[in-house]
């Protein structure tokens, strides 16, 4: 059995991928169990003693001054879940739902939330047995955390809502019954503990950041393919150039480009055919490297967030304090996910310009639109239209969501992050860039076919051969969207990275 152990403090993005996409199970460590139980004991004591605590013996938001009796605390928690289930739009994919469940489990395992261990174990059991709540994508403003989407998650825990179980969409109670999981009756603090946090927006953004990191490698591969097709000049990637401007991502990208193009006889040296290349070839390390550095920065911030307590109020068992704060506010993630969208969008921008360079005979020295009998055939004319449309859409999507705020809860919650929108935009930009890179790979493979394939570097030859396994050389016009989809799947699966690494060793 493949397991990720949860202690609230050491989760990584790779762990998220294992659970979200590779069906690893999760287990609490003994230490985290002790911390959860200690915080719950304090909540029980305070409720028993009739102490006034936000969200436990009071209402929520503007109703924080309304006192709730001990007898009404269960109803208060249930009503919180029911009232917050206001999501709209398409449901999140199962990998996002699994990631969000994992992140909430990890936050609760820190022991600052006051949840019962039995309730936390129910959420763990749902994740391990594959009960995936239907969570609509839209409805969170990113403060107080992801109340709305997380409420849809909890709805299934209490035998309501809907879930996917073994590929079937069922009502929540039926899904839980088929999986053999008992539903929960929430008690004091538990509803708030389960929904007051940034775990859904962080799940979306964390998956996009991981995929974006992989996309930087695919971008280097695509650029190397275009270099081969256009007889690009490799001198611009010389390490001496990059050591005098030592941005880490720039140096690593230049190293990748030289490794991928090693022993190529299609690329050229400075002065052999021309003095220098256009920026889209010459400045690959500077552009790809900047996006790489941005994504690394974003991942550092994600690593902090996924091991943080984002509840309100927080339960400090050692000092016997319950403190209302603002850790649920999504601004730290909203800003970086806006940045993530911009960083990934730039990989698409430069790729689309390389596509244009490949198909334009005045720039490439190759047949117009990479097809014989031009005029009768349009060749690769319109795939570039599609790439242009996608990068143009990305320019709209890259507008930051985090600079917007609409007050909620009658101005009690008077600044919100819109972090869930930032995360979803980054994910959507990523999808567009995957398609743009797929078009570049397909186009560069066609350009290479006008030269001598035996002059290719070992790595690019392997990539070309893999593309040609699914997509034939274009001799006359055909339905290009089918070819584009096949190349998209190669990009999304990261198969091309593995193919290159099998030939030249690990890419940066």
Automatic annotation (TrEMBL):
Signal peptide: none
EC number(s) given by UniProt: 4.3.1.3
Main location, first listed in the record: cytoplasm
Residue(s) carrying 2,3-didehydroalanine (Ser): 144
PROSITE patterns for this protein: PAL_HISTIDASE
Enzyme class: lyase
Catalytically driven reaction(s): L-histidine = trans-urocanate + NH4(+)
5-imidazolinone (Ala-Gly), cross-linked positions: 143-145
Entry keyword set: Cytoplasm, Histidine metabolism, Lyase
Pathway it works in: Amino-acid degradation; L-histidine degradation into L-glutamate; N-formimidoyl-L-glutamate from L-histidine: step 1/3
GO molecular function: histidine ammonia-lyase activity
Subcellular location: Cytoplasm
Keyword Cytoplasm in annotation: yes
Post-translational modification: Contains an active site 4-methylidene-imidazol-5-one (MIO), which is formed autocatalytically by cyclization and dehydration of residues Ala-Ser-Gly.
Family (UniProt): Belongs to the PAL/histidase family.
Record-linked HAMAP family: His_ammonia_lyase
Name by which UniProt lists this protein: Histidine ammonia-lyase
């Amino acid at each position: 059995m493949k397991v990720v152990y949860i202690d609230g403090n050491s989760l990584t993005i790779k762990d998220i991928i294992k659970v979200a996409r590779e069906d690893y199970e999760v287990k609490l460590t003994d230490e985290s169990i002790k911390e959860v139980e200690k915080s719950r004991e304090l909540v029980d004591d305070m409720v028993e003693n009739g102490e006034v605590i936000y969200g436990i013996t009071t209402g929520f938001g503007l109703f924080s001054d309304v006192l709730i009796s001990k007898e009404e605390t269960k109803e208060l928690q249930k009503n919180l879940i029911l009232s917050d289930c206001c999501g709209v739009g398409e449901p999140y994919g199962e990998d996002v739902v699994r990631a969000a469940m994992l992140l909430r489990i990890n936050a609760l395992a820190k022991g600052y939330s006051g949840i019962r261990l039995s309730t936390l174990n129910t959420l763990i059991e749902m994740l391990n047995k594959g009960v995936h709540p239907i969570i609509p994508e839209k409805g969170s403003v990113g403060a107080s955390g992801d109340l709305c989407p997380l409420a849809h998650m909890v709805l299934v825990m209490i035998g309501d809502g809907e879930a996917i179980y073994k590929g079937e969409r069922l009502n929540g109670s039926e899904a839980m019954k088929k999986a053999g999981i008992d539903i929960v009756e929430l008690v004091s603090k538990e509803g708030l503990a389960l929904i007051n946090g940034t775990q859904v927006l962080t799940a979306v953004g964390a998956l996009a950041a991981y995929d974006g990191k992989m996309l930087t490698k695919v971008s280097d591969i695509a650029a190397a393919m275009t270099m081969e097709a256009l007889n690009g000049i490799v001198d611009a990637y010389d390490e001496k150039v990059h050591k005098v401007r030592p941005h880490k991502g720039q140096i690593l990208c230049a190293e990748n480009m030289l490794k991928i193009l090693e022993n190529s006889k299609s690329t050229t040296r400075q002065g052999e055919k021309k003095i220098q290349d256009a920026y889209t070839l010459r400045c690959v390390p500077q552009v790809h490297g900047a996006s790489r550095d941005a994504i690394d920065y974003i991942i550092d911030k994600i690593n902090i967030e996924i091991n943080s307590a984002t509840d309100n109020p927080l339960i400090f068992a050692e000092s016997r304090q319950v403190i209302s704060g603002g850790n649920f506010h999504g601004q730290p993630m909203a800003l970086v996910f806006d940045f993530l969208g911009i960083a990934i969008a730039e990989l698409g921008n430069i790729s689309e310009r390389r596509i244009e360079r490949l198909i334009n005979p005045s720039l490439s020295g190759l047949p117009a639109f990479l097809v014989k009998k031009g005029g009768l055939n349009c060749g690769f004319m319109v795939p570039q239209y599609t790439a242009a449309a996608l990068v143009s859409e990305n320019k709209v999507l890259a507008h930051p969501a985090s600079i917007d705020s609409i007050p909620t809860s009658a101005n009690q919650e008077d600044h919100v992050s819109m972090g869930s929108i930032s995360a979803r935009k980054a994910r959507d930009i990523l999808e567009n860039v995957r398609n743009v890179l797929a078009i570049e790979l397909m186009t560069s493979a066609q350009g290479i076919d006008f030269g001598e394939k035996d002059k290719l570097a070992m790595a690019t030859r392997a990539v070309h051969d893999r593309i040609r396994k699914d997509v034939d050389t274009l001799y006359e016009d055909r339905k290009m969207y089918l070819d584009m989809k096949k190349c998209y799947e190669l990009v999304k699966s990261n198969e091309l990275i593995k193919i290159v690494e099998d030939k030249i060793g690990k890419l940066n």
